[in-house]
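As a representative case, the lines below give one protein's residues and fold tokens.
***
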Amino acid sequence: MTPVASESSLDVSSTEPPSHQWHFSPDMDKDEFKNMVKEMFEHADENKNGVLVLSEFKQFALFAL
């Protein structure tokens, strides 16, 4: 595995608060959950390359709070 040359922690203090909110619920079916996570990923992937760099992952993680 190739080491990633980027930030070394998941400090989110400088990350923008999420502009969207998604709500998980225990009664969600599998397809609804998968679609919601896909939408969250697509929203966090700012450069639309299909990969989340650390700064994009931080934003993705904040959506799930």
DSSP finds two helices and no strands in the chain. The chain has a mean pLDDT of 79. Helices lie at 30-44, 54-63.
